[in-house]
Amino acid sequence: MEKFVRQYNEAVFDTDRALAIQVVHDALAEGVTPEQVVFGIVVPALEGMIPRLRGAQGVSLAQHFMASQIAAEVTDEMMSRFSSPPNIVGRMVIGTSSGDFHGLGKRIVSGCLKAQMIDVVDLGLNVDPVHFVEEVLARNASIIGISSMMMHTATGDNGCRKVRRILQERGLEKRIRIIVGGAPYRYDNQLYRTVGADAWAETALEAGAVVKHLLREVHS
Amino acid sequence: MTPLERLATVAAGGTPDCIPLFCNLIDQGAQELGMSPKEYFSDGSHVAEAQLKMLKRFGHDNLWSLFYVGKEAELLGCRHIIYADNGPPNVGHLVLKTYDDIHDLQIPDNIVDHPAFAETRKCLRILRRETGGRYPVCAYLTASMTLPAILMGMEKWIELLFTGPPEVRDELLEKCSLFFRRQAAAYRAEGADILVYSNPFGSTDVVPLTFFENLSLPWMKRDLEEGGTAGIVYYCGGARMNSVLERVITETGIATYYLSPMDAISEGKRIIAGRALCAGVINDIRLVARAPQQVREEVRTMLKAGMPGGRFFFGTLVMPLAIPEANIRAMIDAVREFGSSPW
To answer: What is the CATH number of domain A90-219?
Structure first.
């Protein structure tokens, strides 16, 4: 098992999708279960990248993206082979804020969360605040994730601020949390408070822990 | 000293009356003229007029011929731009949807006379005429390694780069490099003094170091081999560059580096070691919410880190429209105050 963990980690860090998939199939061939692949190889690989974020070499956006896409692909394949249905820890809807057409960030986040058994419903680009709220209710989800690449879409009246207002007006704040992410929040770590979000994550790799914390808050 | 003399002095290692102050007021133009963004960007004379008005009002040292980043995509066939009242326009039509589109992509032979360049050219000519070579006029050009992101979208480009057919990737990069070279020649012909060479894919924040060395750097050299590095400013679109500075300086000879707000200025200066001009760039996202006194302190700290040893100037990043005018003034006043001291 240790051998596969190391090989998978190296492949993911080298953005080598083909090798990562091969390692997974080699592991299955040697008797590793689909559950062990996800929880013993894929998730630890994602978590193992977090310390590297702060290290000298860092983790680039491309590595982040490839790691999340490989994780999502492997998780999809493995879940269909689980011996019993997986325990989904919670559900969230995600989309880019109104006026924002940059989808990379939410795609990276979705891939990382999927491997951590968080069900993510992708609402797409340029999502209207009302639609965010309607969908989080319709999907019986607990978290709204709003990705913004530009300052005006992060802070504008038709973004997170309006989602917060709608939650307040409808008395939904106790059962629904908002998490935000994207470039403006990295430049100002307090900006998430300004726009009325409950939390933010600097990277998709770290988003899993933040979302799980919010889920615990909602369900406690 | 005129701003252009100021810049030339500091670039040559001399001591100007004050360090140059580059303030990128792009999104503010439409509001300055009281127009909708769509109307504003439809005419190069509007952009030039706003640039000149804001220069007079704030007293910074540079002018821009940039309308918005998607303008380059329009030269390559983008037919739809999405305007916003409170921020920069977005590309609303991706030119490259399939690999066949890459094969069919045509690079204009003549950029200067291309209809999609007409308003930019008009703007440049007005700026040159009105300022008579006293102010550096900046142009914004995207590196071959980064341009595909606005032609096909960031996700598709990363997928092609890391998992796609190398021959398709290289065909696109070759076309984008040709476009860069032709566009650089056009801007130089129309009198732009500074060509901001934007390359987020030349930062290890975006690509791994091995990728940077094996692909980004060779394509940067290809972009620059024909026209040279005169007036070129290396800029990674806000991504950090300290980790690649040494390689870029030694391999390309670019003479000016516009750091990220996330780069430590003192570290950037140490790596550059007097071989090139360095801009310390303020985190202008934080200018939206800060008090003028905090802005002043931030500038003072930056200049203290950057000015020793000379060959340093001050820059801004994206300057969001929401920054209060008082903070823009506080920033500029602080640069003038602390940037005039001897180093």
So the answer is: 3.40.50.280
